[in-house]
Amino acid sequence: xxxxxxxxxxxxxxxxxxxxxxxxxxxxxxxxxxxxxxxxxxxxxxxxxxxxxxxxxxxxxxxxxxxxxxxxxxxxxxxxxxxxxxxxxxxxxxxxxxxxxxxxxxxxxxxxxxxxxxxxxxxxxxxxxxxxxxxxxxxxxxxxxxxxxxxxxxxxxxxxxxxxxxxxxxxxxxxxxxxxxxxxxxxxxxxxxxxxxxxxxxxxxxxxxxxxxxxxxxxxxxxxxxxxxxxxxxxxxxxxxxxxxxxxxxxxxxxxxxxxxxxxxxxxxxxxxxxxxxxxxxxxxxxxxxxxxxxxxxxxxxxxxxxxxxxxxxxxxxxxxxxxxxxxxxxxxxxxxxxxxxxxxxxxxxxxxxxxxxxxxxxxxxxxxxxxxxxxxxxxxxxxxxxxxxxxxxxxxxxxxxxxxxxxxxxxxxxxxxxxxxxxxxxxxxxxxxxxxx
Length: 438
Ligand SMILES: Cc1cc2nc3c(=O)[nH]c(=O)nc-3n(C[C@H](O)[C@H](O)[C@H](O)COP(=O)(O)OP(=O)(O)OC[C@H]3O[C@@H](n4cnc5c(N)ncnc54)[C@H](O)[C@@H]3O)c2cc1C
Description:
Elements lengths: L5 E3 L3 H10 L3 E4 L21 E4 L6 E4 L5 E4 L4 H10 L2 E3 L10 H6 L7 H4 L6 E7 L5 E5 L11 H7 L29 E7 L1 E3 L3 E8 L7 H10 L6 E7 L1 H4 L13 E8 L3 H7 L12 E4 L1 H22 L4 E2 L2 E2 L5 H11 L5 E7 L4 E7 L5 H17 L15 H4 L5 H14 L14
Parallel strand pairs: 1-3, 2-3
Antiparallel strand pairs: 4-5, 5-9, 6-10, 7-8, 7-9, 11-13, 11-14, 12-13, 12-17, 15-18, 16-18, 17-18
Flavin-adenine dinucleotide binds next to strand 2, helix 3, strand 9 and helix 9.
């Protein structure tokens, strides 16, 4: 058993001095990553790799003259959201785990429910700063094209079919800020960022109760197709199945052995959405539609993944979850594929970002079914490759998804990763075990 070194940084100066030492380090913040098992990392990281804690660096929030939000140091999504709201503004990204760090969110290209209405975090970054391998703080702008010594033409051509996905199987590498977005800390450490904000407008949630998707997902698909024309009015279109809801205490469960889809809309758009969208659905009875206040909805939304996490912890297994996004045309295929998983004799649940055709299917295996579930996941990823879908659209690759992402990389991507590492990490000090080493 290796006694791994852990260092906490309390200032950028301490961080810079450590980076100058060139020691291999996995920098982290809140450790909420579902693809890096921080609790059980032995054997997945090289013995000499240090864990570098950034969550001890004091955070700061302020608005720029353009009302963009400047974040430096360790700030959680919850803090950023509360700060903005107290100034009548809003950030547009809303990951379910609000205790995760905002700068880490850039490193993982994190998304969340609001991507439906506001696209991904990548499109909300104005600029950012990072510390490079020499300990210099460098600025990157979203307005400037990424110019590198390497030719990115083929890489960009490969990326093109994924342009409308929340995240592709590999980072975008189109503008300067992409260098740190979704590269999971393998090219430097982000120290500050400027994110676009919008004026705060009160929101409300419309809940729709549905039959279990395993029995009949036609009503679900009717909603999926209907909401696509309302991306300006609907900020989020989320799904939680009856199995996920069953982990909640009965008083928190809005359904009776039913699935739910809920929509986040501005209060001022409520009537219009009801009239122009919900009342026109042919497979949903109006008595199955109701409104829920934002606080209650938030509580429900966060409780589900946390409850699942706890159940797995008690069983001593790690969740075998998917993070697949497909095109609207392939969404029926994805749901049908997930339905085939429900006959395998392994517990499961399904939830996620329905409007974006991005769902998390989770096997809840007993320890003896772990390998079996992994084989089943490999079967899914072969299909996702065939469908030109994105296998990990939100939670990143980290350590746990490396073996599954490898078939999505061709020689083009591998050459670009090698060249990027040579240019930005010549000493191999930034998360050397990350996906760029696939
Ligand atoms: C219940 C639950 C719900 C979740 N919901 C969502 C969701 O809706 N959307 C979503 O996208 N994710 C979600 N996640 C996953 C996770 O919260 C995100 O991946 C998040 O961005 C990780 O942030 P963190 O602060 O915990 O980072 P960590 O887990 O500490 O680190 C994650 C990665 O970021 C890198 N990193 C961290 N800080 C920096 C930095 N300053 N510079 C460079 N690299 C850095 C690390 O090296 C590592 O590779 C969820 C997780 C849980 C447990």
